[in-house]
Design a protein that fits this description.
The complex is a heterodimer of chains A (about 230) and B (about 110). By secondary structure, chain A is an all-alpha fold. In chain A, about 70% of the residues lie in helices and about 0% in strands. Chain A has two domains: about 1-180, no CATH class; about 180-229, no CATH class. Classes of the chains: A mainly alpha (about 230), B mainly alpha (about 110). Chain B: It holds the Pfam family AzlD.
């Protein structure tokens, strides 16, 4: 059952393997070009494990020391993780010793796969979550390491491969919309985020959209008297 | 920046990132009863987040439109079309990406 679960998880992460290796290598290369040796991208990938923030911090490391602005910037950019964790509270409940690892590795892609995959009966839920989390972590860290080590040796010819990640999110969203009976939540998320992006710009739109969504869902919860669950 | 300053900078980013992931689990530990609204939020939110992630992926293309944005939108529509038609995740992802890479590299 363990090997079956692993191969099932592995197949689900294949698009992410493609996207993360490519983006990870790009990130390693980027830090190399900024003048940092391979330990920087590798260690930052291992400890932060959040792609967009790593790119931002790489750039900030070349500027003046300002730890609090780094802290708040990372908090804003990664605020969406709070939503992933709230959504996974119940699913990760019985995960035992795996739980800290699952939470530590809860990135966009891992959340999408672990939330959206419908598991057959012969697949162990907790191990599936763990394998997806660890595989995605490995792809990203290994990519960053490769990019950092080989630096200028690798000539990235695969212009545009990063679209794999966008396509993955599109497919998972389309799946969700096709599967659900009520489009209230997906429509709310899509439209609020779109509006907030144009009104507030790309740094701050995530926390603001999330705040508005919580208010909308709370109003909905009050109106239905909290009976929906 | 000196090395200790670099370490502190990265540590701040790690701290903020970990905070965003661990906070809900710390606020609502599994041995306690999670408030009903939070449980319902956990059920209501995911479709909204998945929609938000699509916008998040397109944030730069939408805010700073170029010919690349048009390609990205077309490739996205191809991905949607393929998926509604065949419901095959790998096919939709590779098909959309292939369209994107093709146009990006010939233009």
């Amino acid at each position: 059952m363990k090997t079956r679960t692993f191969s099932f998880a592995f197949k689900k992460t294949l698009p992410i393997m493609l996207g993360f290796s490519f983006l990870g290598i790009t990130y390693g290369l980027y830090m190399h070009q900024l003048g940092f040796n391979f330990l920087y991208p590798t260690l930052m990938a291992m400890t932060i494990f959040g792609g967009s923030v790593e790119f931002i911090i790489a750039n900030l490391l070349t500027k003046a020391f300002n730890p609090w602005s780094v802290f708040f910037l990372a908090l804003i950019v990664n605020s969406r993780h709070i939503f992933y964790s709230i959504s996974m509270l119940e699913r990760y409940r019985g995960a035992g010793w795996r739980k800290p690892l699952l939470i530590f590795g809860l990135c966009d892609e891992t959340f999408s796969i672990n939330y959206a995959t419908e598991l057959p009966d012969d697949i162990d839920k907790d191990n599936f979550y763990l394998y997806v989390t660890m595989l995605n972590y490995f792809y990203w860290v290994f990519g960053a390491f490769l990019g950092g080590v080989f630096g200028s040796l690798i000539n990235v010819q695969l212009n545009g491969l990063d679209f794999v990640m966008t396509a993955l999110f599109i497919v998972i969203f389309v799946d969700q919309v096709l599967r659900e009976k009520d489009h209230f939540s997906s429509r709310t998320g899509f439209l609020i985020a779109l509006a907030c992006l144009f009104i507030f710009g790309d740094t701050i739109f995530l926390p603001i959209s999330m705040f508005i969504m919580i208010i909308i869902f709370y109003v909905q919860y009050r109106r239905t008297g909290g009976t929906a669950s | 920046m000196t090395l200790p300053q670099q370490i502190i900078t990265v540590a701040m980013a790690v701290l903020a990132t970990m905070l965003t992931r661990f906070l809900p689990f710390l606020l609502f530990p599994s041995q306690n009863k999670t408030p009903r609204f939070v449980i319902q939020l956990g059920e209501l939110l995911p479709p909204a987040i998945l929609g938000m992630l699509v916008i998040y992926s397109y944030r730069e293309q939408l805010l700073h439109p170029t010919s690349m944005s048009v390609i990205a939108l077309i490739a996205g529509l191809v991905t949607v079309g393929l998926h509604v038609w065949k419901r095959n995740m790998v096919l939709s992802i590779l098909g959309g990406t292939a369209v994107y890479m093709f146009f990006i590299n010939i233009l």
